[in-house]
Write a structure and sequence with these properties.
Length: 273
């Protein structure tokens, strides 16, 4: 069967969340490292295509190739485990604890950041010929993205912080829908199509993804972006992580679990005399 009904794939979501909590630290970090690295390469690809063509929509259309690759290979993003692992706790799976969930999140964060940072350093070398020249046009674009999406929020104060947080929520609503999309079909083509649509939407709408930003902002700093590490952490990464957590869990994980696993009693029709 190429398509699973919601009650089937939501059960797969809970099973996946449970398995990630019990995964060894070594495997968790390695899988997260590779996910961060592949997603970072996809971001470079999308930005390069945007610069070359002058049409951001083309970059958005092509960006999901990285997301599809990493999930077909079984690697993990922080945005995905934010949604899946709490479901195992809600479902009262044996041995699943809050501590286990937080451990998983911490390891995935470390792995994602390490992978994204590795690619940031490598691509900075490529864009500057080993730091012997100024960044090329793509490197300059990445540096300006870092400035605009830190200082650009900061100049609006609390309103900017709210905007950043909401963009993080909207992002993982779509990204976690892509994670679920990989479970909807049993065919590779079906998985890719189901993942591609929401990921294209999030990237095209320039929502804030914590793992993509683990590449964009460090690489911008390396290549001379006009913002600081504290700007990156306070005016992007931390609020984005929180927005990703709440948005993905509230709009995707909990809604699917509540309506397909822990459903409310069905309405009964009374016979009229």
């Amino acid at each position: 069967m190429s398509y699973l009904v919601p009650s089937e794939f939501v059960t797969k979501m809970v099973d996946a969340g449970e398995s990630k909590i019990y995964m060894s630290a070594r495997d968790t970090v390695i899988r997260a490292y590779m996910a961060g690295a592949i997603l970072a390469l996809a971001a470079v690809f999308a930005i390069t295509v945007t610069v070359q063509t002058g049409y951001p929509i083309i970059g958005a259309i092509l960006f999901p190739v990285g997301f599809s690759m990493l999930y077909l290979l079984g690697f993990d993003l922080l945005t995905g485990v934010f949604v899946l692992t709490p479901l195992a706790l809600l479902d009262k799976r044996p041995g699943v604890t809050v501590g286990g969930i937080l451990r998983n999140w911490g390891l995935v964060f470390i792995g994602n950041f390490a992978g994204a940072f590795t690619v940031a350093v490598m691509m900075s070398i490529v864009f500057t010929y080993g730091f012997s020249t100024e960044p090329n046009i793509v490197g300059q674009k990445i540096a300006t993205i870092g400035e605009g999406r830190t200082l650009g929020y900061a100049k609006y104060g609390a309103a900017g912080m709210l905007t950043l947080f909401v963009r993080g929520m909207l992002c993982n609503w779509m990204v976690s829908t892509g994670v679920v999309g990989a479970m909807i079909s049993t065919h590779v083509s079906g998985k890719v199509i189901a993942m591609w649509m929401p990921i294209m939407l999030f990237f095209g709408m320039t929502f804030e993804h914590s793992v993509v930003n683990m590449f964009l902002f460090p690489s911008g700093l390396i290549m001379g972006g006009n913002f600081s590490i504290m700007d990156y952490l306070i005016w992007n990464e931390i609020p984005t992580v929180l927005g990703n957590l709440i948005g993905g869990l509230a709009f995707t994980g909990l809604t699917l679990y509540a309506t397909h696993i822990k459903t409310a009693p069905k309405r009964s029709l009374m016979n009229e005399d």
